[in-house]
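Hello, quick one for you while I still have it in my head. A protein chain has come my way and I'm curious about its shape. Can you walk me through what the tokens say about the fold? No rush at all, and the record is pasted right below.
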Amino acid sequence: MTDERCDFEYRVDGQPDFSFLTVQLPPDETLKVEGSAMATMDTNIAMKTKFRGGLGRMLTGESIFINEFTAEGGPGEIGIAPAAPGDLRHVYLDDDTIYLQNSAFVASGMGVNVESKWQGLVKGFFSGEKLFLIRCSGQGDLFFNSYGAILEIDVNGGYVVDTGYIVAFTEGLEYDVGRVGGFKSLFFSGEGFVCRFSGSGKVWIQTRQVPAFAHWVNPYRPVKSNN
């Protein structure tokens, strides 16, 4: 796995706050893109829509579609705008596997298999993402995004991350989800569930999470007067 090798030429603008991905597609090459993320494209690029993850994605209430964009009759350019305001990363999978939080997938080459993965009733607390992660495996470019900036952490032994800040992690890391303290800590400390990683691999975390931002904004909401 590397962030230096790539099959497609690409550029990322607006990092780390409002990342925008531009990919150059060679003739007859195809790129998988998260549904509704395409912002611009050349006129010779054709789109097909396919399911991703089947029933699993339906149960999470999130998009269950991947759009495939193919440059027909010559090279083409596509601009991709992830839904969340934040950072974007590229890795090249070389028969590797990465697990993403359910909303992190942005785009990939056709050699990357993208599927939802059942996490069970305890492990499915990543970022409030219910019971599924996205499993990306195979060979090719993979792009994923975050809410806030992305930090890459090398884990060798053990590491603890609040589940709301996890963006991605590599296969081979063992993990267990639990509370920081007791039930009093869960409800009154502002801290919730954490993921305890063990083994050797990489974890990508985001520097912000949506629930914390919503809590910060709440006192500033306009309040309708009853008068």
